[in-house]
């Protein structure tokens, strides 16, 4: 860590030339675009339900959910895989984004709740007479969406500013981010906090006055999530290939040296940290209308560690790896919990031990090894 | 009801010295059958003699377990029928009729039972009766009964309680001298009930005499001071108690994380294994050695250490040893291990919490003030934590293994050159940390729930303690654990449990900003810096 340069790292600081992606890469992106924006909606909405090609609503919802997770994993890769900072608190930003969206959706229920009140049901239940101040902007979609970005972004910025200025790094940083998300979870579990306590938000009816359960609404959300994921992927790609991104990687490998060469690592770390948090928040905001519930469980330390799991299983420092990891782990989870519910944790645990021990570069690294690709593309990353 | 009680108490008062004699079957029958007035008279006569055997009969009457036939009363208790007032087994004739108690009779029986218990030869019974009595609204009419019990009481605490009850009644007596005396005797009390009583008396109109008012005021000040003292001590004690639990939970981590640099996210699960080992030992004792059940905890302590240490050794040999020097990867791998261990326990013992009982010698507590009781199990954990701490400190500082552990931590290659089997030392050190986690689990099983999620609820706290104390510093761990425990309990008084916890976490986050290396930073050029 820190001043000790890892002997195993073989990063070339040579700037990459040429395009953002190679021919293969762009083919992949275009294929993903077509799948998300054309194939899935067609297979789900236009192909009749009896057909073998019909894609069930369940799978659309599942893939939509996993794409949100993939955004988190991508954000985690930027901060962990490329900058060497392991956050155990990304679930907090995800949940804050989700709560921001949830507040708007709660207000959109209007008087259709259990109690036929203007106030959300849980407030009626708690015998509150008016909205708390935190809900001031919740009637306006635009304002609330700004909050989705601003609140987690600001929190990340302030927290990161103090943490990086004090030169907290490595395990210490991981553990205090864990403390932060744990504290937030305890806070959101309280009814007095004004965000539905234990149960969080659920029972949404509309988004932008459109019924939320309607197939076309779900599809729009799905496509939007997919496009966001692809957009973030291209953005992350641009970032890591830029000079800025190379400084980040240099910080990961030898922060002291970067400092001695005249860079200010704090600004770099703080900006990528905040960006990463905002990406998670957007993922959370896309997640909530598709899944239909948000509660403080998303802020549990375990949920945050799982984000790191997706990134590690897929392959850190590869961008595509974390996306693969998110799909692999969550796909396995939904399969296991249906078929062998009691074996899911064994599998996840074993997967995680095996990946750390045998596949330090994750699935993408394994594929690279098997196909004999040069080590230039698949980089060895050590935390 | 009140008149009956009064009558009863008057009778009791007259016959101040109890005569030890057995209840005769005739008396029992008189209490069990006949007109209500006659029955009550017979009951009162028997009660006045403070006969312990009467309590059995009265209880049976209240439980509707008495039958009457041919001028004889039969009591059925635990499936055995005896002739009332004797211990000779008897069978009630087929035409025996159940004794029916009307509400008046029931009231008299209950009152009799209460006063019988107050003078029962068993201290426990008397204590329970006092607790019952303290719940009632005390009346001047009850004074003779309390006087009598007070006169006969031998236990100092109970005698003091009775005296307070007397004073509580006397404080509203019509005689000024009595009121003054009562105020004097309340001076030494420390009960919250007395405080509200005094406040009531001092409230406008209740007490007119200035002299008595002054005495009452003095008593109130004294009582309030004592209550506040008890409260403060209570916060202190629960704080130290929580601190000792945190210390136990964090000590193992201080070794695995502090000395070895392994972020062991499975530490909580190792604690869980220790708690389940205690559970298993408890069940074995219950099944095979029910006579020695109370000693099970003594056997559970080494067993929980061994169980966790063995699991720890296996983990170190199979997983951890490949990850030394890569702390974040140990974090991820041990997280995987913790998931497997949790699910393993779920498969073996079920997802529900299991019941671990306190042995008899850990139940109850010492009453220091009326509002402060120190439970034995918390005290035991305090002592236990201190013992484990001393043990670990000696092990690290004084033994060959400790020397090797320190040597390997500081300079692995040099230690290896000196002939230390570093791989074996790693295994020993990690199993030691795991074993201490097991001991923590054993201790936790005495105060909290034992379930598959036990570890999860302590892991964040344990890491906070180690990080706050400063990595690699036993002293730091101790200060951090006790400090966090005290701060937490202190804040709880103002903000409630959850907010206190949040404040503590935020405090740690801020503290780490100021001192990134914890309270006791390692001096010199550590590789982390």
TrEMBL record, chain A:
Membrane topology summary: Multi-pass membrane protein
InterPro entries reported in the protein's UniProt record: ABC_transp_permease (IPR001851), ABC_transptr_urea_perm_UrtC (IPR017778), LivM-like (IPR043428)
Location relative to the cell: Cell membrane
Domain of life: Bacteria
Parts of the chain that traverse the membrane: 21-46, 58-80, 87-106, 141-164, 171-189, 219-240, 266-287, 307-331, 343-367
Keywords carried by this UniProt record: Cell membrane, Membrane, Transmembrane, Transmembrane helix
Keyword Transmembrane: yes
The name this protein goes by in its record: Branched-chain amino acid ABC transporter permease
UniProtKB/TrEMBL annotation, chain B:
InterPro entries: ABC_transp_permease, ABC_UrtB_bac, BCAA_transport_permease
Membrane-spanning ranges: 233-258, 270-289, 295-315, 327-345, 379-397, 463-487, 493-512
Keywords on record: Amino-acid transport, Cell membrane, Membrane, Transmembrane, Transmembrane helix, Transport
Tree of life domain: Bacteria
Compartment list: Cell membrane
Membrane topology: Multi-pass membrane protein
Pfam families linked: BPD_transp_2 (PF02653)
Similarity-based family: Belongs to the binding-protein-dependent transport system permease family. LivHM subfamily.
Name by which UniProt lists this protein: Branched-chain amino acid ABC transporter permease
Protein source organism: Sphaerotilus microaerophilus
């Amino acid at each position: 860590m820190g001043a000790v340069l890892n002997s195993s790292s073989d990063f070339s600081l040579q700037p990459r030339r040429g395009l953002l992606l190679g021919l293969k890469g762009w083919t992949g992106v275009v294929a993903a675009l077509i799948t998300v924006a054309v194939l899935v909606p067609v297979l789900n909405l236009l192909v009749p339900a009896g057909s073998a090609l019909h894609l069930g609503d369940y799978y659309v919802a599942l893939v939509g959910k996993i794409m949100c997770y993939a955004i988190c994993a991508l954000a985690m890769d930027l901060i962990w895989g490329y900058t060497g900072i392991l956050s155990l608190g990304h679930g907090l930003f995800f949940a804050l984004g989700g709560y921001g969206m949830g507040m708007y959706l709660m207000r959109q229920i209007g008087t259709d709740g259990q109690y036929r009140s203007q106030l959300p049901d849980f407030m009626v239940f708690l015998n509150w007479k008016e909205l708390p101040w935190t809900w001031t902007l919740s009637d306006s979609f635009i304002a609330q969406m700004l909050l989705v970005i601003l609140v987690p972004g600001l929190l990340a910025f302030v927290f990161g500013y103090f943490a990086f200025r004090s030169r907290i790094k490595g395990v210490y940083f991981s553990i205090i981010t864990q403390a932060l998300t744990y504290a937030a979870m305890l806070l959101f579990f309280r009814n007095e906090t004004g965000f539905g306590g234990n149960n969080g938000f659920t029972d949404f009816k509309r988004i932008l006055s459109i019924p939320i359960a309607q197939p076309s609404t779900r599809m729009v959300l799905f496509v939007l999530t997919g496009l966001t994921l692809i957009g973030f992927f291209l953005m992350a790609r641009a970032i890591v290939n830029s000079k800025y991104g190379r400084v980040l990687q240099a910080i990961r490998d030898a922060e002291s040296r970067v400092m001695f060469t005249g860079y200010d690592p704090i600004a770099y770390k703080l900006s990528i940290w905040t960006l990463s948090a905002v990406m998670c928040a957007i993922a959370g905001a896309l997640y909530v209308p598709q899944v239909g519930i948000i509660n403080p469980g998303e802020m549990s330390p375990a949920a945050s560690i799982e984000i790191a799991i997706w990134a590690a299983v897929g392959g850190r420092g590869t961008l595509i790896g974390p996306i693969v990891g998110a799909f692999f782990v969550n796909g396995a989870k939904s399969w296991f919990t249906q078929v062998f519910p009691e074996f899911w944790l064994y599998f996840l645990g074993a997967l995680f031990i095996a990946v750390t021990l045998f596949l330090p570069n994750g699935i993408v690294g394994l594929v690279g090894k098997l196909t004999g690709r040069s080590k230039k593309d698949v980089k060895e990353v050590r935390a | 009801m009140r008149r009956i009680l009064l009558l009863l108490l008057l009778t009791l008062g007259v016959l101040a010295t109890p005569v030890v004699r057995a209840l005769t079957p005739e008396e029992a029958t008189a209490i069990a059958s006949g007109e209500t007035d006659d029955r009550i008279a017979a009951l009162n006569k028997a009660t006045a003699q403070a006969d312990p055997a009467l309590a059995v009969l009265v209880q049976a009457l209240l439980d509707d377990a008495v039958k009457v036939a041919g001028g004889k009363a039969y009591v059925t208790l635990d499936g055995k029928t005896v002739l009332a007032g004797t211990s000779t087994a008897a069978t009630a004739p087929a035409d025996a009729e159940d004794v029916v108690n009307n509400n008046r009779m029931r009231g008299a029986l209950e009152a009799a039972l209460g006063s019988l218990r107050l003078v029962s030869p068993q201290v426990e019974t008397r204590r329970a009766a006092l607790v019952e009595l303290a719940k009632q609204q005390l009346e001047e009419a009850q004074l003779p009964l309390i006087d009598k019990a007070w006169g006969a009481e031998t236990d100092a605490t109970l005698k003091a309680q009775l005296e307070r009850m007397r004073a509580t009644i006397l404080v509203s007596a019509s005689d000024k001298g009595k009121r003054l005396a009562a105020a004097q005797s309340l001076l030494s009390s420390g009960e919250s009930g007395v405080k509200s009583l005094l406040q009531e008396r001092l409230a406008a109109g209740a007490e007119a005499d200035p002299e008595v008012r002054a005495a009452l005021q003095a008593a109130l000040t004294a009582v309030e001071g004592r209550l506040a003292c008890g409260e403060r001590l209570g916060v202190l004690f629960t704080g130290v108690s929580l601190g000792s639990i945190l210390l136990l939970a964090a000590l193992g981590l201080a070794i695995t994380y502090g000395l070895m640099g392994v972020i062991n996210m499975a530490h909580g699960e190792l604690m869980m294994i220790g708690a389940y080992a205690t559970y298993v030992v408890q069940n074995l004792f219950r099944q095979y050695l029910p006579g020695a059940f109370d000693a099970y905890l003594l056997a559970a302590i080494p067993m929980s250490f061994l169980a966790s240490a063995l699991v720890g050794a296996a983990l170190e040999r199979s997983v951890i040893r490949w990850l030394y020097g890569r702390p974040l990867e140990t974090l991820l791998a041990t997280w995987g291990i913790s998931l497997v261990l949790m699910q393993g326990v779920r498969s073996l013992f079920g997802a529900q919490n299991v019941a671990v009982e306190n042995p008899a010698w850990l139940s109850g507590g010492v009453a220091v003030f009326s509002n402060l009781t120190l439970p034995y199990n918390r005290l035991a954990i305090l002592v236990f934590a201190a013992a484990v701490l001393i043990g670990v400190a000696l092990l690290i500082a004084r033994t060959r293994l400790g020397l090797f552990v320190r040597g390997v931590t500081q300079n692995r290659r040099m230690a290896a050159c000196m002939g230390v089997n570093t791989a074996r030392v790693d295994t020993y050190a990690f199993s030691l940390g795991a074993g201490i986690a097991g001991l923590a689990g054993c201790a936790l099983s005495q105060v909290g729930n034992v379930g598959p999620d036990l570890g999860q609820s302590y892991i964040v706290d344990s890491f906070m303690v180690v990080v706050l104390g400063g990595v690699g510093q036993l002293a730091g761990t101790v200060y951090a654990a006790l400090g966090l425990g005290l701060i937490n309990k202190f804040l709880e008084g103002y903000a409630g449990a959850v907010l206190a916890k949040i404040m503590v976490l935020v405090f740690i986050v801020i503290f780490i900003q100021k001192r990134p290396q914890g309270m006791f930073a390692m001096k010199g050029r550590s590789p982390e810096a």
